[in-house]
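User: You have something folded?
Assistant:
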Amino acid sequence: MNENSQSLSCVMIPVSDRQLLLPNVSIAEVVDLNSTSADTNTPDWLVGFIEWRGLNLPVISYDVANGGNLVMPGANRGRIIVINTIGPKHEQLPFMALVTQGIPSQNHLTEEQIRELEGQPGPADLMQVEVDGEAAWIPNLEYLESLAAEARH
């Protein structure tokens, strides 16, 4: 690697039919997938709520939020990632959570390792990229945060 090239610490997050790519700083914590609680009258994309550091966080299924089906991970595979919010409602909702299909993996990526791909994004997708030959999606955090804010009302 060139001494002048800058790398960004990123996380690849497995969901049912794709990998999500986020900067490491957007992830507050990865926790075990324990029981989540949800009311019967909740949107399909809302898996439930978890208690985390004294907060009651909405847990979103990225797959359902993106127009797909709910796929719950196996007992030993799934995790919940707690994500720092950045949108205008950050004061009221500083974190949200997504259910994953496995343990996220960390990578240090340079600009040369990532290239944008043409793809048909869903509502929860910002764009599709290729990372060292592997397809990944950058999630639309504003959209996911709007869902998390909706779940809290």
